[in-house]
Amino acid sequence: MQGxxxxxxxxEEEKNQAESCDFKTTKDDGTKARRKLxxxxxxxxxxxxxxxxxxxxxxxxxxxxxxxxxxxxxxxxNTCSIREKAEQTVRNxxxxxxxxKKKNREVTVGVLGCMAERxxxxxxEEEKxxxxxxxxxxxxxLPKLVKQAEEGExxxxxFLSREETYADISPVRLNSNGVSAxxxxxxxxxxxxxxxxxxxxxGRERSRDPHSIVAEAQELFDNGYREVxxxxxxxxxxxWSEEENNKxxxxxxxxxxxxxxxxxxxxxxxxxxxxxxxRFSTSHPKDITDEVLITMTKYENICNYIHLPAQxxxxxxxxxxxxxxxxxxxxxxxDAIRKxxxxxxxxxxxxxxxxxxxxxxxxxxxxxxxxxxxYDFSYMFFYSERPGTVAAKKYEDDIPLEVxxxxxxxxxxxxxxxxxxxxxxxxxxxxxxxxxxxxxRSDQQMxxxxxxNKVIIFDADVPKGTYVNVRVTDCTPATLFGELI
Length: 485
Ligand code: SAH
Ligand code: SF4
Ligand code: F3S
Description:
[4Fe-4S] cluster 2 binds at residues 189, 193, 196. It is found in: Cytoplasm. It is an enzyme of class 2 (transferase). By secondary structure, the chain is of the alpha/beta class. Helix content is 35%, strand content 22%. The chain folds into 3 domains: 10-157, Methylthiotransferase, N-terminal domain (Rossmann fold, 3-Layer(aba) Sandwich), CATH 3.40.50.12160; 180-424, tm_1862 like domain (pyruvate-formate lyase- activating enzyme, Alpha-Beta Horseshoe); 430-484, CATH 2.40.50.140. Strand 2 (35-42), helix 2 and strand 3 form a beta-alpha-beta unit. The protein is globular and about 60 Å long. Residues 1-20 have low confidence and may be disordered.
C-alpha cells in the first residue's frame, strides 16, 4: 500500500521511470474551522488544480483543511482514469476510507474527477461507501451534495458543460511552495486521440477569459509567487474572443473583436512582471505555431521549455492513435524549436509503448525519434486499454504485457542515457535559477530550476522566490548540481 507521501517526496528521476500513481493531499490549514475537509488528488496537474478550486468552494461554506482522513468530516478523492492502474489505486484507497467510515459513520465520502465522470452512477452502485459522485464540471454543486449526504441522501452530478471554466473562483493554493503556482487556462479536449479517455471525462474544449487569467497571475505575483504554469490538455489551441463570449452569455452581437490566441495570451501574462516566470503545459505538436515560439523569444521570463508529447515515433502508429501528425511533421516542429529557441531549449515528451499492432520496427522508430530530438526527460507508459475509446472499439490490444514492458524499459533506458548526455552539456554553464526551497535530498542545500526546467541543487542560504546565478559543476540524468556565483 502506498503511504501518505506526497508527490513532492519523489525524486524527478524516480517519477520519470516509474508509471507512478503519485497523489497529493490537503494539509492542515491550522484554522479552528468547525468542519474539516480532506482531499486526495490523483492524475494530472489539471486535477491538482481542480482540487484547489474545490477547496475554495468548500472554504466558502466554512470548511478548513486537514491532512488526515481520520480527522475529516468530508473525504474527497479526486480521481484519474488515464490508465487502468490509476483507477485500481483509487479502488484500493476507497477500501482504506471504508475503514475510516466504520469508525466514524458521520463522515461523507465523495468521488470527484475523471473516474466519477467515466463511471457515473456505477460508482455509487459498486462502492457502497461513496456518498457523492461529481464530475469535473459540476463542482459548484458540491455544497448542495455535501448537505444532502449529511442528511443521508446520496447524490450525483456528472453533467459536462460547454462553458464552465471556474474563472471567477480563486483557488486555495494547496500544494504550493509559495513560489510557483498553476493556472488553468482551458478545460476539456476536442482531440480524440484513439487511446485516450480524457475527451470523455473532461468534455469539450473551452478557453477561459484571458482577463481573469491575467488577474490571477497578477494576484499570485503580488502575493510573492514568481512562477506560473498555464495549464490545459492542449494549450496551443487556446482561443478566446469577447464577441463569442458575449454572444454565448447574453445572446447578443457586439462589435467584432480580435481573437486572442495562445501566443497573445502568454504575452499578456508575461507582461504582468519581468520577474514572473511563465511556463505552460501541454503543447500538442499539431498546434504549436512559430508565432508561439517567436513570442517566447521576445520575453526573457517566458521559459525556454516545451512539453511536446510525441507518443510514438512511427507515422503508422501515430495515425492509428489519431494524433493527426506524422513523424516528419513532429520533426519539423522540433527543428523549428531548435532554430527559433536554440539548442538549450528544454523539450520533454510522453511516450506510449506497445500500442495496438505496434511492430518491433515501429517501436524502434520511437527510439530513433528520441535520439533525434534529445529530450531532456519524458513521461513513459505502456499502453493501457480504456473502455469506450476508439482504440478499445476498433483495435485489438494485441501486444503481450511482457513485450509492452520490455519496450517500455528500452524507452526508459534510452531516455536515461539521453538525459545524462543533455545534462552533461550544461556542466560549466551558468544559469539564472529561481530558488524554490531547500533540496529534497538535504536540508543543507537549496534547489530551483533554470529556464529550461532543469532542477539544480546548490549550497546556499537564500530565501525561496529569489533569482540567483548558478554555475553547473556536476549532474545525474535527473539533476544538475552547481555553485552559487
Ligand atoms: N493532453 C496531453 C496528454 C494528457 S494524458 C497530450 O495530448 O499530450 C497524459 C499522457 O498519458 C499522454 O500523453 C499519454 O502518453 C498517456 N496516456 C493517455 N492515455 C493512455 C493510455 N490509454 N495508455 C497509456 N498511456 C496513456
Ligand atoms: Fe488525450 Fe489526445 Fe486530448 Fe491529450 S490531446 S488529452 S492525449 S485526447
Ligand atoms: Fe487523469 Fe483526468 Fe488528468 S484522466 S490525466 S485526471 S484529465
